[in-house]
Amino acid sequence: MIILGIETSCDDTAVSVINTTKRGTRSLSHIHYSQIKTHKKYGGVVPEVAAREHTVTIIPTLTAALDKARITEKNIDCIAVTQGPGLSPALSVGIDTARILSQRHTIPLAGINHIEGHIASVWPIQEIPHAHTRVPQLPALALVVSGGHTELILVKKFGSYMLLGKTRDDAAGEAFDKVAALLELPYPGGPKISMYARRGDDNAFDFPRPMIRNESLDFSFAGLKTAVRYALEKHQRQSKQLKQNIAASFEQAVVEVLIEKTLRAEQRYHPKSILLVGGVSANRLLRSTLRSRCKKNHLPLYLAPPKLTQDNATMICMAAAYGNKKGALSAWKRMHAEPGWHITS
Ligand code: KG4
Ligand code: ZN
């Protein structure tokens, strides 16, 4: 079965093609156009600007994905498109493109939850470097960390989830982006903070670890951002070394909180595997610390393959393939954006 995936929920225009057969699931194309250059000017994503740029890039991205996969629109058996959550005007560009294709060639349409897409990124797929070759043992505990989400989710089976904890204010990626802005580093802040942190002293600042001792599995990162602002304000001359020390101490605090909460959830729910997915899962410190903690506790860990950490359409195809979305197909007339769609609703 040939599945075309479309993802436009935020600032990435992405189209992918996968082929699922009895022999496995294979990536045929993975095209991704990032709008970072545009949003850098504003220091964050502006929804209307994102939508306008998606309308310009979606057709060339689609054409490139079909060409790379050596197929035409007529060869597509199913279209998987991100239906939510995300920015409403941005989601609509991908959905409208999917609707037109569906109507024109009578292709079944599957609306995919973006978070479910991130979770699917650790399922097996051939031709994606460092992808897993085995399906994670279930139930699994997923830490979903991105610019818009920080959630601990118990994956009982594909399509059946229990939300264990979520952020009460900023998402982890959002905290990275906001702290980067305070340090006058460009958007998106995650990769830049991480680079700075490598040359900084993570003990230089004793930033709070919000809610780390709290029994709840929820997160809160807004206070940490404020603590960084106060630390900066105390210094009139903000040298590069100071910024590197702040970046290292901040990153350490975020990683500690994410990992402590994940291990607490593990002790409470005894999952058979741990999954780390979403844009922030690209963070080296988070990956290496979680890897060593899971190894110590003999917990099988599935890290998102680097190519699938940030928003992409291959994970949307995979959610359709592994989630067996045949029962969830929509008619093109009824498909619309669900900006606030929660995975467990
Ligand atoms: O999943 P994603 O591409 O988009 C959303 O669904 O939000 O995640 C983007 C987020 C941004 O906030 C970005 O700063 C963060 O992921 N990010 C990182 C790193 N790479 C990207 N955060 C920390 N460390 C990184 N290396
Ligand atoms: Zn995402």
Keywords:
20% strand; binds 5'-O-[(R)-(carboxyoxy)(hydroxy)phosphoryl]adenosine; 345 residues; alpha/beta; six-stranded mixed β-sheet; five-stranded mixed β-sheet; binds zinc ion
Describe the structure.
By secondary structure, the chain is an alpha/beta fold. The chain is 40% helix and 20% strand. It contains ten helices and eleven strands. It has a six-stranded mixed sheet with strand order 3-2-1-4-5-11, with helices on both faces. The protein starts with a strand and ends in a 15-residue tail after the last strand. The mean pLDDT is 94.
Q: Strand order, biggest sheet?
A: 3-2-1-4-5-11
Q: What separation lies between the terminal Cα atoms? A: 28 Å
User: In which range does the helix fraction lie?
Assistant: 25-40%
Q: In percent, how much strand structure appears in the residues?
A: 15-25%
Biggest β-sheet description: 6 strands, mixed
Question: Helix/strand-derived class?
Answer: alpha/beta
Low-confidence stretches: none
Mean pLDDT: 94
Radius of gyration: 20 Å
**What form results from the Cα inertia axes?**
globular
